[in-house]
Amino acid sequence: MNTSVRPDVRPASPHFSSGPCAKRPGWSLQVLADACLGRSHRSKAGKAKLAAVIDRTRAVLGVPDDYRIGIVPASDTGAVEMALWSLLGARGVDMLAWESFGAGWASDVTKQLGLDDVRVIEADYGVLPDLSQVDFSRDVVFTWNGTTSGVRVPDGGWIATDRGGLTICDATSAAFAMDLPWDKLDVTTYSWQKVLGGEGQHGMLILSPRAVERLETFVPPRPLPKIFRLTKGGKLIDGVFQGATINTPSMLAVEDALDGLAWAADAGGLPALIARTRANMAVLEAWVARTPWVDFLAANLVYRSPTSVCLKVVDPWFAGLPAADQAAAVKRLAGVLEDEGVAYDIAGHRDAPPGLRIWAGATVETVNLEALCPWLDWAFAAVKAET
């Protein structure tokens, strides 16, 4: 392949950002025409929309009937922080961190909550920590899929069924793209703008009966802002899990979430979404296998994320550059692709090693990834030739 020749086939959509992610195929502003606008979100019509998000979420993800599903403010970040501030402190805590978001949750627990009994089990970008070190008599906080490292836990087999503590899982780039074992998860969070490509602002909080019991029996040794409060008088506030949100939601974003969930159901539900994601990942795997200048940041196939696909540049030219110049080269590479209208926002996360991050979740069409790969080769060759 002559990488100096500009490819003549462009992706029909250049949206490969890892968040907010690509809208579902065929999306247009017309899908928001039925949004409940200019009315209270607590009106009968508004609450029905919010309740429908919860019901459709349960159906597509297969969430057990005795788990509670709530719509909460501030995206996945708000959902995770709500869980940390409301639930932690009853037991010791094991924090798992192998990328920036997990490290952020660990920092919040140690520095903001100031808990005394915290163990942080860490690993570098591209690998998982030793999961056998986790003590499930304690509470455990972890990301299912490391969005900024391209590393995920392989399954739920490492999580104890007879655990004493709670498992709190940030699943924001895994929900709707990977199998989540609900019997192993007590608190699960994600955001609308990830796998289904919804509009941002809101997060989802899914609680097991064990998590509800903790909320109703444990009083956190700290004041809780109103936006974090899930109980009143020692009882769960049921309305939060029936569509009566804590704060005012965007009904445009709600309508978009409903559209994404309807598309997911029509596409064949969770198995179809997982299959679409795997097909996308297969395109990138085949490209990496034949491309000498790039490799996956996650060397172990078992731990490699199929949604937030993180890549490292392994070309000797790149390896010989100072760190600052490596970062600049990646930025230039991503910029060339954006200027060509071929790929938007695919530079790696600012906290990760310099590289690329390509979203391959279910809303991305496989044919667009196939068209992207020659452009990646062309752009790399162009940037390399500049230096």
Overview of the molecule:
This protein has 387 residues and is of the alpha/beta class. It folds into two domains: 237 residues, Type I PLP-dependent aspartate aminotransferase-like (Major domain) (Aspartate Aminotransferase, domain 2, 3-Layer(aba) Sandwich), CATH 3.40.640.10; 118 residues, Aspartate Aminotransferase, domain 1 (Alpha-Beta Complex). It is 35% helix and 15% strand. It has nine helices and 14 strands. The strands form four sheets. Strands 1-9-8-7-4-2-3 form a seven-stranded mixed beta sheet, sandwiched between helices. Strands 12-13-14 form a three-stranded antiparallel beta sheet. Helix 1 packs parallel to helix 5 and helix 8 packs across helix 9. The longest helix is centred in the C-terminal third of the chain and has 22 residues. It starts with 43 loop residues before the first helix and ends with a helix.
